[in-house]
Write a structure and sequence with these properties.
By secondary structure, the chain is of the alpha/beta class. The protein folds into four domains: about 80 residues, Beta Barrel (Barwin-like endoglucanases), CATH 2.40.40; about 50 residues, Transferase, Pyrimidine Nucleoside Phosphorylase, Chain C (Transferase, Pyrimidine Nucleoside Phosphorylase, Chain A, domain 3, Up-down Bundle); about 200 residues, Nucleoside phosphorylase/phosphoribosyltransferase catalytic domain (Pyrimidine Nucleoside Phosphorylase, Chain A, domain 2, 3-Layer(aba) Sandwich), CATH 3.40.1030.10; about 80 residues, Alpha-Beta Complex (Aldehyde Oxidoreductase, domain 3). It is about 40% helix and about 20% strand. It is built from 18 helices and 18 strands. A six-stranded mixed β-barrel has the order 1-5-2-4-3-6. It is globular and about 70 Å long. It binds 1,5-di-O-phosphono-alpha-D-ribofuranose and 6-aminopyrimidin-2(1H)-one. It catalyses: UMP + phosphate = alpha-D-ribose 1,5-bisphosphate + uracil; AMP + phosphate = alpha-D-ribose 1,5-bisphosphate + adenine; CMP + phosphate = cytosine + alpha-D-ribose 1,5-bisphosphate. InterPro entries: AMP_phosphorylase, Glycosyl_Trfase_fam3, Glycosyl_Trfase_fam3_N_dom, Glycosyl_Trfase_fam3_N_dom_sf, Nuc_phospho_transferase, PYNP-like_C_sf, PYNP_C, Pyrmidine_PPase_CS.
Length: about 500
């Protein structure tokens, strides 16, 4: 059918094409059918919504479509139904545990980027990968396909450093310290992050509290050429565009299948032209990698994938057995990260990890002698040079460089849990801490999250505060309290863990 475009004031989180009930009946179209919209050289795919928000002879498009394609009000287009894409067959192949060929992986990625695959099919792909995994040939093909379906950054500087955490551990604001420390030493580090996947705050969610994170590649190039670094969101760029689309399904399911994780991270590094990449693998109970053995095996995969892409990769296996620092949630983490940069001081778990990672990068980039990187990183942090660099980054990214951490608003609906008994803290449950912060509204509600007053090994007295939940609404606060009561986020020796009645 031919129709005139009507731009609807709707964000549906997907590519939606609206037609009226009458037109749908005539054309035998059904809700959620995949349709192709063509106008001149433009081809857009979307799923159908039947609605009388549009009249006959019109098609409505949600504003989501306009973020990537220019369509104007009144433009005449043709709309045709499209059958199930061929790539769905390849997804089914993976469901049955078969190995995918390079061309099949490329077709899946192309169809994800073109929006020919809808959420339901993408979630099935993610689930199939979670269950059946990918081998190194498949991972390499996926990584290159993800990078090559988007733009590539070309910065005329050498060496280009990068750091990326596989995530999973609550409170992981570490790279917000690592990037300015490394850049203050004169190295170039154009850091892209994703938003939260399994946690309550991804690095992009945290940085967004005090600076913009959505930039075009040209803007990034300008920022990095000026200050040597950036801290931006990968999803805002047309950089490995399949990544942010698959992350949406991963976030909903709270899974991050290793093969997809490798491709997600390394496709961004490849597209950014990073030559020396440090991967952080937090390891411990309740995070993505629970044992040192698994961590070493994943490390080998990252190094091998790097070799295939022509990148030099090193891996740091780090302690992920409990949250990093004392805060979880975008605004609370932003406060903690900025104050550590400003004062050079902060929780040991944050400072030691950040300077440890930065130190490795300083050695990889050839600005610190072997074995001296961490010391140099600490000096850069304590001297205030890292903070000066961070202020430059904030300013270039449109934030206020004179920001005071304590002025960052945090959720004012609060509730504090106290120790039910005296003793030593024996365990903090990462999954429960993330669950509480998410129930409180993080990462979408920036002020939501929690503040931890104790870490494993510390002694508490009955009644001492253990943690405070912050939320932006009473309803979310209540949900987080209920979640916290159902789980057992902080275990203290001597505590009655569970009472089982005689029934
Ligand atoms: O913890 P979850 O949400 O699973 O993983 C996602 C986080 O891990 C990575 O961290 P970084 O950007 O290297 O600091 C991602 O970019 C993202 O911020
Ligand atoms: N799957 C991923 C984990 C961590 N960071 C990413 O960018 N992607």
């Amino acid at each position: 059918m031919r129709a005139r475009v009507k731009i609807l004031d709707v964000f549906s989180g997907r590519y939606s094409v609206f037609i009226s009930e009458e037109e749908a009946k005539k054309a035998k179209l059904h809700p959620d059918d995949l349709v192709k919209v063509e106008s001149g050289k433009k081809t857009i795919y979307g799923s159908l919504v039947i609605s009388n928000l549009v009249g006959s002879g019109e098609i409505g498009v949600s504003k989501d479509v306009l973020q990537l394609h220019s369509l104007s009000e009144g433009e005449v287009v043709t709309v045709t139904p499209v059958g199930t894409p061929e790539s769905v067959r390849y997804i089914k192949k993976k469901m049955h545990g078969e190995k995918l060929r390079k061309v099949e992986i490329e077709a899946i990625v192309r169809d994800i980027v073109d929006r020919k695959l809808r959420d339901i099919e993408i979630s099935s792909f993610v689930t199939a990968l979670e269950i059946n995994g990918l081998d190194m040939d498949e991972i390499a093909a996926l990584t290159v396909a993800m990078a090559e379906t988007g733009d590539m950054l070309d910065i005329d500087r050498k060496p280009i450093m990068d750091v990326h955490s596989i995530g999973g551990v609550p409170g992981n604001k570490t790279n917000i310290l690592v990037v300015p420390i490394v850049a203050a030493a004169g190295l170039t580090i154009p850091k892209t992050s994703s938003r939260a996947i399994t946690s309550a705050a991804g690095t992009a969610d945290v940085v967004e509290v005090f600076a913009n994170v959505s930039f075009s590649l040209d803007e990034i190039k300008r920022i990095v050429e000026k200050v040597g670094a950036c801290l931006v969101w990968g999803g805002a760029l047309n950089l490995a565009p399949a990544d942010d689309i698959t992350i949406k399904s991963e976030r909903a399911l709270s899974v991050d299948p290793p093969g997809l994780m490798l491709a997600s991270i390394m496709s961004k590094k490849y597209a950014m032209g990073s030559q020396y990449v440090l991967i952080d693998i937090p390891t411990g109970k309740g995070v993505k990698v629970e044992t040192m053995e698994e961590a070493r095996s994943l490390a080998r995969d990252f190094i091998e994938l790097g070799k295939r892409l022509g990148q030099y990769v090193e891996v740091a296996i780090t302690y992920g057995g409990q949250p990093i620092g004392h805060t979880v949630g975008p605004a609370l983490e932003a406060r903690e990260a900025l104050s550590a940069l400003m004062t050079g001081k902060g929780p040991g778990s944050l400072i030691e990890k950040a300077t440890g990672l930065a130190g490795i990068l300083l050695e990889m980039g050839g600005v610190a002698p072997a074995g001296m990187g961490k010391k140099m990183a600490k000096e850069i942090l304590e001297s205030g040079k890292a903070w000066e660099k961070m202020k430059e980054i904030i300013e270039e990214q449109g934030g206020d460089p004179n920001i005071k951490p304590e002025d960052i608003p945090i959720g004012d609906k609060t509730y504090t849990f106290t120790a039910p008994t005296s003793g030593y803290v024996t365990w903090i449950d990462n999954r429960a801490i993330t669950g509480i912060a998410r129930a409180a509204g993080a990462p979408e509600d920036k002020g939501a999250g929690l503040e931890l007053y104790v870490k494993v090994g510390e002694k508490v007295k009955e009644g001492d505060p253990l943690f405070t939940i912050h939320a932006e609404s009473e309803a979310r606060l209540d949900q987080a309290i209920v979640f916290a009561r159902r789980t057992e986020p902080i275990r203290i020796e001597g505590m009655v863990l569970q009472r089982i009645g005689n029934i």
